[in-house]
Amino acid sequence: MFSSTQPVGLFSPEHLIFLAGSAFFCAAMIFTGGRLGQKGRKRLLIALWSAFTVIELCKYVHFGIHPDEFNIKTGLPFHLCSISLFTYPLAVFTENKIFRNFIFAVNMPGALFALITPDIGNATALSFYFLHLIIAHTFIVLIPLYMVSCGFFRPDYRVLPGVTLMFLMTMIPALLLNRLIGSNYYFINGPVSGTLTGQLADWVGEDAYMLPMVGLLAAVWALLYAPFAASDLIRKKEDKSK
Questions:
Q1: Residues near 128 by Cβ (< 8 Å), separated by ≥ 6?
Q2: What are the two backbone dihedrals, phi and then psi, of residue 195, each rounded to the nearest 5 degrees?
Q3: Distance (Å, whole) CA 226 – CA 80
Q4: Are 63 and 47 in contact (CB under 8 A)?
Q5: Does the residue 8 lie in any domain?
Q6: What is the number of structural domains in the chain?
Q7: 25 in any annotated domain
Q8: Which carries the bigger pLDDT value, residue 241 or residue 213?
Q9: How many whole angstroms separate alpha carbon 91 and alpha carbon 145?
Q10: How much is the average pLDDT of 205-225?
Q11: Domain assignment of residue 81, yes or no
């Protein structure tokens, strides 16, 4: 089933199997956390964060062992999902609403789109690149979902302006590096074929692909926060009626 020589195709059986495994793992961890007490849920959260951190750092160990696979234009931690290495401990170990809403509203959707339309290139199903991509992004999606599902925080649309500012601030190093070395971190300088950016560029052109990206992010935020906003509104109406 999993070839060590044939590249993985987008939505190929191999890709879909890994997506199903990712979804099952996320559901299993959230279910497990829901059955634990408060201390158990916290320990599992720290274990998930620790596992993700080790997995992400393994990428740089791999580059150290195989320096021929490292490319400074793609391998530094300046992509949206790569900065999870820095944003997730801020969210896990503090109760700051902006940090926690940032991983829910920015890192998580970015990782989900990366799982669905990954930059696979010529990677095979058993290659380090593909396995790391799937596993690391699974944890990036899982951790904020776990934190919300297990009661660590409640998404709050009122902090989205702060989340937006933080988002823009995280882009500054990528912008500077892109200008310095001609890289494409955050996919600011152009779309990548096979990914969401590439698909949007196919629809609207390479010069305008960032416009629907902004619209898509707004739509995703509306979907993510609407249930919580509606619940708060219903609760306020019930409180007033008492």
A1: 62
A2: -95, 180
A3: 24
A4: no
A5: no
A6: 1
A7: yes
A8: 213
A9: 12
A10: 89
A11: yes
Structure tokens at 239: 């409180």
Lookup: tokens for 55: 């997995």
- Would residue 191 count as lying in a domain? no
Task: Let me know: does 86 contact 113? Beta carbons within 8 Å.
Answer: no
Provide the mean pLDDT of the chain: 92
One-character DSSP codes across 193-231: TTSHHHHHHHHH-TTSTHHHHHHHHHHHHHHHHHHHHHH
Helix (H) or strand (E) holding 22: helix 13-34
Dump the DSSP string for 111-179. HHHHHHS---TT-BTTSHHHHHHHHHHHHHHHHHHHHHHTTS----GGGHHHHHHHHHHHHHHHHHHHH
Torsion angles phi and psi, residue 55, rounded to 5: -60, -45
Cβ-contact 97, 153 below 8 angstroms: yes
Please name which of 151, 173, 146 lies closest in space to residue 80, comparing C-alpha atoms. Answer: 173
Residue 240, pLDDT > 80, answer no
pLDDT tens, 148-205?
999 999 999 999 999 999 999 999 999 999 999 999 999 888 888 778 888 888 888 8
Question: Structural domain of residue 149, as residue ranges?
Answer: 13-184
41-65 mean pLDDT: 96
Amino acid type, 100: R
Label residue 4 by pLDDT band (50, 70, 90): low
End-to-end CA distance of the chain: 61
